[in-house]
UniProtKB/TrEMBL annotation, chains A, B:
Binds 2 Mg(2+) ion per subunit. It holds the Pfam family RuvC. The lineage of its organism: Bacteria, Bacillati, Actinomycetota, Actinomycetes, Kitasatosporales. Homodimer which binds Holliday junction (HJ) DNA. The HJ becomes 2-fold symmetrical on binding to RuvC with unstacked arms; it has a different conformation from HJ DNA in complex with RuvA. In the full resolvosome a probable DNA-RuvA(4)-RuvB(12)-RuvC(2) complex forms which resolves the HJ. This is Crossover junction endodeoxyribonuclease RuvC. GO terms for molecular function: crossover junction DNA endonuclease activity; DNA binding; magnesium ion binding. Signal peptide: none annotated.
Length: 183, 183
């Protein structure tokens, strides 16, 4: 599966594309940062984020988009910009029918380092190792976006099994036609 | 001037269009609410908000869009959805080149009632009076959207004078060519 990870932000929005399946070596297809000037009007900054995300979706055609879940209790000074940038990323994906998954920062850290309290350096080191890169991606927002994509690939099997179970349950509820088709 | 006011929200996003100038009776051109189902996925809700705002922009062609400024310290449980809906409204306007203005709730209340601490009923009563309506618009989000538009029309003259002064100052700074053109 191919996943675009997005670490949302207005000044720096980290983006990273990873391909692979759980239990196999992963491949990085791209990493970068969408930047908008702090002195620009908010509306124009959101348009710039939209254009940047659209370019990444056009170029890499991900099957899933994984966005960091924003909490209102953290980083009060920047949380509004983060929430607004994440809204734009989710909007771009949903408009194309691409499923959007939200993962918390501690879920992401736990997925790639084994600890939900790992620091940025530790996340960067593990992203470098897992994707077999020469050096940690810079800035940290870019590394975090890759970590989000990795987290989604590794957590996805459980989520997919759940979705399959729900789908099968729904199919059995309308048993006659389902049996008819498989007979 | 024609202004679309937006009281952002995911469940109910209030929208109202007012036309007029400061010091003259105002006219309501439309009022309503863009709703999205609480059980839908966040990405799909943002797409629904986008489609709703786009319809209002298409139909009324406002010259300005006035959006309530969201603060992270208020209403922690709903503030993220409010921030995300406001991002979509600002994005839709900025994409069309329509100037976006943000007004705080107390600026809006002070503009239409004279008090920054007025309650919803007071705002609804003044919106009804100022727009010569038969009854207060329901729900309150719709009335708040109209109040935002009224606030923008009434505050705009001062902002416009400031923008004019800045523009003149900039023109004088490049005096020779400016003089040359007016000579």
């Amino acid at each position: 599966m191919r996943v675009l990870g997005v670490d949302p932000g207005l000044t720096r929005c980290g983006v990273g594309v990873v391909e692979g399946v759980a239990g196999r070596p992963l491949t990085m297809l791209g990493v970068g940062v969408v930047r908008t000037p702090a002195e620009a009007e908010l509306g124009h900054r959101l348009v710039a984020v939209e254009q940047g995300i659209e370019q990444w979706l056009d170029e890499h055609r991900p099957e899933f988009v994984a966005v960091e879940r924003v909490f209102s209790q953290h980083n009060v000074s920047t949380v509004m910009g983060t929430a607004q940038a994440s809204a734009v990323a989710m909007l771009c994906a949903a408009r194309r029918g691409i499923p959007v998954a939200l993962h918390t920062p501690s879920e992401v850290k736990a997925a790639v380092t084994g600890s939900g309290r790992a620091d940025k350096a530790q996340v960067g080191a593990m992203v470098t190792r897992l994707l077999r890169l020469d050096a940690p991606p810079r800035p940290a927002d870019a590394a975090d976006a890759l970590a989000l994509a990795i987290c989604h690939i590794w957590r996805a099997p459980a989520q997919n099994r759940l979705q399959q179970a729900v789908a099968q349950h729904t199919a059995r509820a309308s048993a006659p036609s389902w049996k008819g088709r498989t007979a």
